[in-house]
Amino acid sequence: MPVTQASSLSVSYPTILPQVQQGGIGEGGDQRLGGMKAEEGGGGIQRAFTPKTTWERFTSRLKHGWEGAKFDTDQGASQAATRFNARHKEFSGKVESLVSRLASGKNSDVSDPDMMATLRNDVKVMHRNAPWASRTDLLSSRMDVELGKLSDDQLTEVSKQLASADTSRLTDKDKVDLQTMQRAVLRQQLARSPEMGTMLGTINHGAPSTVTERNTLVGRLTGLNTQTTQSLTGLNIPARGGNDDIVSGAISIALKRGGYTPAQLGGMNRNLLNVERQLCLDRPLTDKGEVPEIASFQPRMRMLGRAVREEFLQNNVTTFKDDNLRSRMKPIGSGAAHTVSKGEYHQGGGEVSRVHKYDDEQLIHPDGGRFGAPAKLGIDQSNPKLLERAVFTSKLDTRLGFNVSVGTDFARHQDQTGIVMELAGGKTAKDTVGVTGNPGVAQKELMKLQLLDIITGQADRHGGNYLVQTNDQGVITGVKAIDSDFCMGPEPDDASKIVGRHAVHLPGMPPVIDTDMAIAIRGLSDDDVARLCGDMFDDATIAAAKSRLGKLKGHVTKLEQTPGGIIRPDQWGTKEVTEKLENTTVRVGNKDVPTSYWQRDHARMERPFDPFAELGIS
């Protein structure tokens, strides 16, 4: 896998499990079960679209409520819903009862191997409904729910009872489950500690602006980890993964317990983004002359940033979450950095198809090492935050009225934040052949895409990252940008500075645009850019985007002073415009670089269709 997908850091969950409600779920399922089928020996309730595929609409049942998952009203569906709810209710009730007894001073249950074996079997049953989650995480998650209900004194009592449990008759697996419970208690205690409150209060009120203040914040985070290590040592529990499951989970719990508003979470996210970048800039450059990655010297600060970011982004998810998912996620392909899937969501009065992409914990090139394009933009590839860049591109496209990128929104699937994108017809530019007819629409749409990419500083718009739509006669009718996440870095402040550089696919500044495009660019203000960015980016990234917009506006002024630089929208495809697009280049180093996507790609798209070449036969 070229990309390590991020695990959710959110561990604050509902206290009661809602019940499945009856109702319609749409078409495509087995009508005997209202669109569902139950496979008792395999994975619990499953979709009937394809064999042995988990129905992912019921994901995160332990961790999230739902507003009413829908079944058809026939008897089979009701029975399936009843079985499903019974499993979860029984498991939740057992953990609730166990925690209640421990809080009242009784540890005999966790010293009983039969009881522990029964609990482990219940977790196995739950794992059938959530196969993507480890069994340890399932138990830990439910413990978080019940422990979160306790007072501080009750939590202390649970900790005492677990620590004093008689383990002489327990198996190794029993001891692992016991340690899982103890780690959950430590997570809750750390979330409620004064040190946690002080640290979160610091980033809630502003970004530490001096080296001393930043070092103090790092010290507080290190202190939380040290406190965790000491507690684990005292309980003879081995550390696991640098204690990240405890510290990061505690941060998420504390954020939810703190009752922060979406605006406060956004401010905390942006504050940490600024701290992260400044910490990197405080360090010497690497041997390659690059700003060091945050994970290389401050992995815990990266962890804190991701925990806050997770809470912030969840507030931006509305429609596209598992409660509204109406099909399984079907893998449809992968690129250099991503594997994508397709699913159906309930929206408004109907269902919509969306392409889903997970978040990226870090970027690792398939050939090893890092990607070239993000490096040119100053994107930290150990903590890339690409979701925000793709969503911003979609928002900016909408604001400009260009309509040349797929609509993109934040999403939650299987307890992970990601994005969903609209489905767009057509083929990628590199796979498009046999284009004929007047090139006017292609020139116009590709120029809008180029202007969009200049503002975002998009470095990766090669022929595989936009779709070309054609009619039956082979005439291009539109283009749609996809994979728009290698952009919006803190560098460059002028898009022309990266043109011609290795791994960068952005052409030079355009030789011609039309009047509508000029109006749209001039109508976009710095305040518009800041508003669209919100709290998704650090100050340097927002400032760079504003600067690129300013440079583009300056170029528009130059085009107005150049004969044929600004044309009417109906002049695309004329001989004069085509010649200007095809013949204007910019000199970068010792090579001539195209100044438009049209110049770069049109010849390839106009090559005749060759069925043997398409089949890989020479």
Automatic annotation (TrEMBL):
How is this protein named in the record? Answer: PI3K/PI4K catalytic domain-containing protein
